[in-house]
């Protein structure tokens, strides 16, 4: 009885405190300035939760609703953080909204737009926000499924600024960021996390602390300067980045923050997939400055976190996302492969994951290769623009050959892809004479280029042979192409020897199909005659294996064991 009386005394005390704060003129403009208010809100939530009394909940609700609205209206003038208080009130709305018939969706959206956009850089508020989202994960997925996908750019700013200490909590929230509408724009936002850090640090350097000020307002304040600069460019011919003798340096100017690329990076809400202007002088200058000087600890953490977040994105994409979105993602993967933050280890880790995701998409649905013929052909045409584009073209060649140019139903696309491979092959053969002479002079760069060219040519030759094996009508053209390579002793020996070997295989169709024939989709359950599904090797008799595999064995066929061909691990 005494315990019950104590509880109700506590309830009355905290309710009076709440009512006083809601009425007191001292706190009307800034309720969060009352240090006892947060404790009262949390205590009342706990009491309502433990007592399960609708009467108590109904008495508390009007005061909390009033304080919530007053907090929001006073954020721009507030000298104290409102985040923790608003999160505590939001928790009450989520827990007891059904009892008081309150829809928390508008309150949640207003919190993200008005409060978190100003306080994401506050480590206490950032941690409390992630804890709040994790505690209510099921509620968000069932009742507010579009909320987190809408505000994923803001949450990425939160983790970019606060770093690895909040990564574990953010990773638990991360799956909730992905929806039909956010899947595609989320990918460039993840891989641009280091550049987001550069942009945020640039805003902090030019405009002061990020805590308590909305970046959106900073962007708006720089818009008139941007307009004047554009007018100056139109009438005088000077560019935005020129600056006269009296102008400030670019690092201290707000002009770079108004660059379209940075405006896209610094947004709070998902407004779809937008083009990111990598050619912008301001972006190039900012990235070059970040790379050439000592990197901040925050940037180093972003470089480490990005591959791990990309791993989560890839796992969800392969497991849960439909084919149409994966197909739409592949051109974006190809476009961004060579447009990344230029840090060596970061490039290696992210590019490796981009290729894995792209090839997983092709493996899941080989028809993507035919559907995306145009962007694939474009990338093959850029094979020698840079080492990263060479590697991308090499992987695309492998995918084209491995999956038969999209499959048997896409003969026209396969023919066009074959022609692109032919063109790439002939261009390389004509240039290999020059490369060979350069490498003979001992230049390291020339030797590196020759090695890269030879590697690509090996993949092109293999892709041509595989395509012709799958689409028999291409065999005559493939023989002509491979014969030219085999007779060309000016290229790397590995290339012309491989072409010669493939020509020999083509004289034995069944063997050629077994070696070069593309793997069939497991879902179709179809297998070409003459091929072996090695995953079923344990159930096969020796007679099912092509004879050439047993060429090195001795004795009659019935003496052979499968272990002679497929040794155990």
From TrEMBL:
The AP-5 complex subunit zeta-1 C-terminal TPR domain, residue ranges: 291-520
Signal peptide residues on this chain, from the entry's feature table: none
All residue ranges annotated as the AP-5 complex subunit zeta-1 ARM repeats domain in the record: 33-157
This protein's name: AP-5 complex subunit zeta-1
Gene behind the chain: LOC107031821
